[in-house]
Specification:
The protein has a domain of 140 residues: 3-Layer(aba) Sandwich (Peroxisomal Thiolase, Chain A, domain 1). Helices cover 36% and strands 24% of the residues. The protein contains ten helices and 13 strands. The chain has a nine-stranded mixed sheet with strand order 5-4-6-7-1-8-13-12-11, with helices on both faces. A two-stranded antiparallel sheet has the order 2-3. A hairpin with a 2-residue loop joins strand 9 and strand 10. The chain is globular, with a radius of gyration of 20 Å.
Length: 365
């Protein structure tokens, strides 16, 4: 028995923006004080992000031509939650399909899948994305399906752990996991410290993976060895996500890196002990880039270098934080660098509301 990732695919929307352009949009429309504008531009530069993606094209338009944001100078009539969810319903499916296509191509026999797990915290409707994917991909109508909603950035890790449990109990299982997030739909008008930090980091993206109960001989795969998680209730107010009248409202304080720094060693020790391993046995890292300070906190505690953590920085630089699919972007990059290298151990982390720390251990096949 076992669980094996046999393919990973990723996708981003067509609209790609520089971090400088996004900062300028904020200064042009939401922040009028020159001193505050200067702080925002410094904040955006400090993230380590160069480009982010969005399903919205308003960020390259001028006032009077916006299709999503208000076209009045006061920017008062901000999009309602209903309007944002309408855009989510329109845009989430094609982005998800792009990730599945990158994962499997167009001609894969999708009827082989026994389970479908969809992951998202930036939109919801019913019948939902899972049903739309079944129709679009011609998946079996009796496929077992689960939706992991509102779990935040660590949810894809939870989906992999769920897939492992499925495959451990059914070696004939074949699970399709699809994670899609449209974070850019939830820009808030009120420029609180939490909102400014969130606006400087988050972006849109999707990822798809296949987890099977078995793999073909000589087929490259990632064996899912074990998982571990820790919940730090003391940080429940430092990272949170709730539904407001004008989109989803995020709480994201500057204390999050400290909380992660305080718990990462315990989590790592617990996970490695399940396989009688030590940190010296780890060959590569796939860490969710929740932000530059989070990456630095983990490096400090585990005494790993930026070079060992380079994939996380690359994804952060080129994509920003896309919430749940982000760690799969990192894992894809790490795995691509270990092709034809069996028995390499990969340690992976992701973090989210709760405050929740999730970890997974993989081995290349």
């Amino acid at each position: 028995m076992g669980a094996y990732i046999t393919a990973i695919g990723t996708a981003n929307p067509a609209n790609r923006y520089s971090q400088e352009d996004l900062a300028q949009f904020m200064c042009d429309h939401l922040i009028t004080d020159p001193a505050e504008q200067k702080k925002v531009k410094v904040l955006y530069r400090a993230t380590g992000i160069q480009h982010r993606y969005s399903v919205l094209d308003d960020y390259k338009k001028s006032l009077g031509t916006f299709s999503f944001y208000p076209n009045d100078k006061t920017f008062n009539s901000f999009p309602s939650t209903q309007k944002r969810m309408n855009v989510y319903r329109q845009e989430a499916l094609p982005l998800a399909i792009s990730a599945v296509t990158d994962c499997l191509g167009n001609n894969h026999p999708f009827s082989e899948f026994t389970h479908l797990i969809t992951v998202s915290c930036t939109g919801m409707y019913a019948p939902g994305l899972d049903v739309d994917l079944i129709k679009a991909l011609n998946l079996s109508s009796d496929i077992r399906r689960n939706s992991l909603n509102f779990m935040g950035c660590y949810a894809a890790m939870n989906a992999i752990s769920m897939s492992k449990e499925i495959c451990d109990n059914n070696p004939n299982a074949k699970v399709l996991v699809v994670s899609v997030e449209l974070c850019s739909l939830h820009l808030q008008r009120e420029q609180t410290e939490d909102n400014l930090l969130a606006h400087s980091l988050f972006a849109d993206g999707a990822a798809a993976i296949v987890v099977s109960g078995q793999h073909q001989q000589n087929e490259q795969a990632l064996e899912v060895l074990n998982s571990a998680s820790q919940l730090f209730i003391s940080g429940q107010n430092d990272m949170a996500w709730q539904i407001g009248n004008f989109g989803f409202e995020m709480a994201l304080t500057s204390y999050v890196p400290k909380i992660i720094e305080g718990g990462i060693n315990q989590l790592t020790t617990e996970l490695l002990a399940k396989n009688n391993l030590s940190l010296s046995d780890i060959d590569s890292y796939a860490i969710h880039p929740g932000g530059k300070k989070i990456l630095e906190a983990i490096e400090n505690q585990l005494t790993i270098t930026k070079a060992q953590n380079h994939a996380a920085y690359e994804v952060l630089k080129n994509h920003g934080n896309m919430s749940s699919p982000t760690v799969l972007f990192v894992l894809k990059q790490v795995w691509s660098q270990l092709k034809d290298q069996p028995n390499k151990k990969i340690l992976s982390f992701a973090f989210g509301p709760g405050l929740t720390l999730e970890s997974l251990l993989f081995k290349t096949i």
